[in-house]
Amino acid sequence: MSIKDTAKALLEKGVATGDEELINLANELLESLTPPKPSKKSGLDEDYIAPAKNENAQSDSQGRRAKTEPIDAKKRENEFVDDGTEHKDEVTPDYIPSPRGRKAFEKVKVVCTRCNKNLDVHPVHKRENYICSSCIKK
Ligand SMILES: [Zn+2]
User: Fold this and answer.
1) Quick one: which of 84, 135, 92 has its CA closest to 113?
2) What pTM was estimated for this model as a whole?
3) Whole domain around residue 25: which residue ranges?
4) How many domains does the chain fold into?
C-alpha cells in the first residue's frame, strides 16, 4: 500500500468517524504527495506578446471579430494650409535623366475561338485559345 492509498484510507476513516483532525491530517498528506503545479512560464516576455483582442467583440459565424467601435462619419475639414514652408530644404539634384527608349506596343492579331472574329489586342492578352470579351460574357 502506497502512502497515497494510506492517506485515502485515513481520509475515509476520518469521514466515517467524523474525526476532523484525521481528515485534516489525511488532506495534508495528500497535498504533500501531489507535486506543485509548474509555474506558468513561457519563453516570451510579456512585452513581446500582442495585447489581447477586445474581449467584448462578438465573433461572427466564421470566427472573425468585428470592430465594435463606431466609425466617425462626421464631415471633417482639411486643416492643412500650404504656406510653402514644407520641404524647403529639399533640393532637386542636377542630373541627366535616362532616356525613355521603350517602344510603344503594337497590337497583335488574334482570332476568337468561339466567334472566329479577327481582333487586334494588346500583346499581353494574346493566348492560345483566345476568347473575345463579348463571347466571355456569354
Ligand atoms: Zn468571340
Assistant:
1) 135
2) 0.32
3) 3-32
4) 2
In a domain, 90, yes or no: no
CA 123 to ligand 1 center in whole angstroms: 17
- Taking ligand 1, which is a single-atom ion, which protein residues have CB atoms under 5 Å away? 112, 114-115, 132, 135
Contacts of 1 (CB under 8 A, 6+ apart): 9
Distances (CA, A) of 15 to 10, 21, 23, 28: 9, 10, 7, 15
Between the CA of 108 and the centroid of ligand 1 the distance, in Å, is 16
Which residues lie across from 109 on neighbouring strands?
120
Q: From the CA of 109, how far away is ligand 1's center (Å)?
A: 13
pLDDT band at 53 (very low <50, low <70, confident <90, very high): low
User: In this structure, what is the dihedral angle of CA atoms 63, 66, 68, 70, given to the nearest 10 degrees?
Assistant: -170
